[in-house]
Amino acid sequence: QILTLVPDVIHVFAQVVVSPDESDEVKTTIGKAVSHLISVYGQQMQPILSALPPAHANALAAFASRR
User: From which domain of life does this come (predicted)?
Assistant: First the structure.
């Protein structure tokens, strides 16, 4: 049931990580959550991430790669 909401959640996460008003701590936590989603749902996540604007996708990827 929650999988239908993942695209919306990823979109919000992407907006947060590009926001200059949010702390690195919050952005890093979002990155960990995205990394987990990718590790669990791999192929299902690719179209969601590909649909993001490039700047958002790149920022999200940068924080997701922090561990």
Answer: Eukaryota
- pTM of this prediction? 0.88
Give CA–CA dist 42/21, Å, rounded.
30
Residue 14: CA atoms inside 13 Å, Cβ hemisphere, count? 18
Q: Report the C-alpha gap between 16 and 1 in whole angstroms.
A: 24
DSSP states of the chain: -GGGGHHHHHHHHHHHHH-TTS-HHHHHHHHHHHHHHHHHHHHHHHHHHHTS-HHHHHHHHHHHT--
pLDDT of residue 67: 62
The CA distances from residue 42 to 24, 26, 33, 39, in Å, are: 25, 23, 13, 6
